[in-house]
Amino acid sequence: MLAAPREIWENTPGLSVLTNSSQQLFLDSPSIMDPASSTPLFQVESPVVDNAFAESMGFVTTYLRALESARNDRIITDPFAEPLTRKQQPKIEEFLKKVSSEMYSFPEDIIAFRTRYLDEALYHRDPRILQIVMLGAGLDARAYRLNSLRGCHVLEVDQSGSVFEHKAEVMKELHAPLIAQNVDCIVSNLAEAGLEANLMGHGFNPTMPTFWAMEGLIPYLERFNIVDLLKAIDYLSAPGSELWADIPGRVLVDGEEWGKRAMKYGEDDPLHGVFSEIPWNLEVQASLKTAGEHFGRHWTPMLSRKSKQIIPFFFVVGKKPIPGVVVEQKMNPGLDFED
Question: What would be an example GO MF term here (predicted)?
Answer without folding.
Answer: methyltransferase activity
